[in-house]
Write a structure and sequence with these properties.
The protein has one domain: TIM Barrel (Alpha-Beta Barrel). The chain is about 50% helix and about 15% strand. It is built from 17 helices and 8 strands. Adenine binds next to helix 4.
């Protein structure tokens, strides 16, 4: 069985996915036409040509520009529905979607348009594709704490539809501690917490995310490797990292995939999961990330199986839902072993001494 077929068949959860980052150039142009907006790109090729990034900030500039075509509930539905179609084909059974309310409310789009549109696609995905999902409301860290507090107040009518809060956008110079109070408020309202940390920011940001924001998972987190005691802590405490290999190469966190540290982190006992981050911008959806990482780092079927299992266990699904999906992962592992049994080392021929 080839890597792609095996990785596709593994039931997976995608836990680090910015729904605005799934906006393919074709849909961007279609929504611009529908909403009578002028883009600086004449066609799809021109949009794709602009996707050369020097780092996180140069990506974010174009990502916020693209997101400006999203205006109505229908736009958000169409965006998420297109993602779910792709995810289902990749063997994703559960997805936890980040969305950035401030990117939209700053442009005068009501939060209700965003949430209702996403929710309509989520309901359809569960019914028509068998893919479950949850929403994670992210605060933009380049904006102020007061802006994050105001956003959380605006989100109050929708809190029953939101599983967690997150923290994204420009990392350097915007440490997690800036958002300690709004995260405490969200947790006191029963929401879970995650945060981007250790993508471009230092290992200390990962520690702040754990200690001050009390996150259940760290998004990216790969710069933890610069502090061995932190790697040991992540492994000991079972903190999942939502790693995004293709994103990390596109944004120059690693020079190429062969030098990515995800395999080393796995071998040190860290609960690594694989995800696509902003797939329309980084050249691949979640299955592409599994396959590219497997090829570049010589990941074994057992590695892939472990990554898929980690993704289910690190999700915010209930214990019962996780057990059902892990059961399905076990079956795929067993079928693989039947089709392609691991070669046992041949017993050394007994030396016949005369
Ligand atoms: N927003 C969308 N993608 C992001 C990333 N990789 N890091 C920080 N903020 C983001
Ligand atoms: Zn991200």
């Amino acid at each position: 069985m080839d890597v792609e077929a095996f990785a596709r068949r593994l039931p997976k959860a995608e836990l680090h996915l910015h729904i605005e980052g799934t906006l393919e150039p074709e849909l961007m142009l279609r929504l611009a036409r529908r909403n009578k907006l002028k883009l600086r790109f004449p066609d799809v090729e021109a949009v794709r040509r602009a996707y050369r990034f020097q780092g996180l900030q140069s990506f974010l500039d174009i990502y916020y520009e693209g997101a400006a075509v999203l205006r109505t509930q229908r736009d958000f539905h169409d965006l998420a529905w297109a993602y779910f179609g792709r995810a289902a084909k990749d063997g994703v059974r559960h997805a936890e979607l980040f969305f950035d309310p401030q990117t939209h409310t700053q442009r005068g789009v009501a939060l209700g348009e965003v949430v209702e549109g996403l929710e309509a696609a989520m309901t359809r995905a569960r019914r028509e594709l068998g893919v479950t999902s949850k929403l994670i409301l992210c605060f933009l860290r380049h904006l102020s704490e007061e802006a994050a507090q105001a956003t959380f107040s605006q989100a109050r009518p929708y809190l029953d539809r939101i599983a967690a809060v997150g923290l994204d956008s420009s990392e350097k110079g915007h440490p997690p501690r800036k958002f300690e109070r709004v995260f405490a408020r969200a947790r006191s309202e029963g929401l879970l917490a995650v945060a981007h940390a250790g993508e471009e920011g230092p290992p200390g940001y990962v520690e702040e995310a754990l200690d001050l924001l009390k996150v259940r998972r760290v998004d990216h987190g790969v710069r933890c490797a610069e502090k061995p005691a932190l790697v040991e802590r992540l492994a000991r405490e079972g903190v999942p990292l939502t790693v995004c290999p293709l994103s990390n190469v596109k944004l120059k966190v690693f020079p190429d995939l062969a030098r990515h540290n995800l395999k080393a982190l796995l071998s040190r006992g860290v609960r690594v999961t694989l995800n696509s981050d902003d797939p329309a911008y980084f050249g691949g959806y979640v299955l592409d990330n599994y396959v590219a990482a497997a090829r570049a780092l010589a990941l074994s079927p057992l590695h892939l199986w472990t990554l898929a299992r980690n993704s289910i266990e690190a999700s915010f699904l209930s214990g019962q839902e996780k057990r059902a999906l892990v059961g399905d992962i076990m079956k795929v592992g067993a079928a693989y072993e039947d089709a392609d049994p691991p070669r046992r080392p041949r017993r050394a021929a007994r030396s016949r001494r005369s």
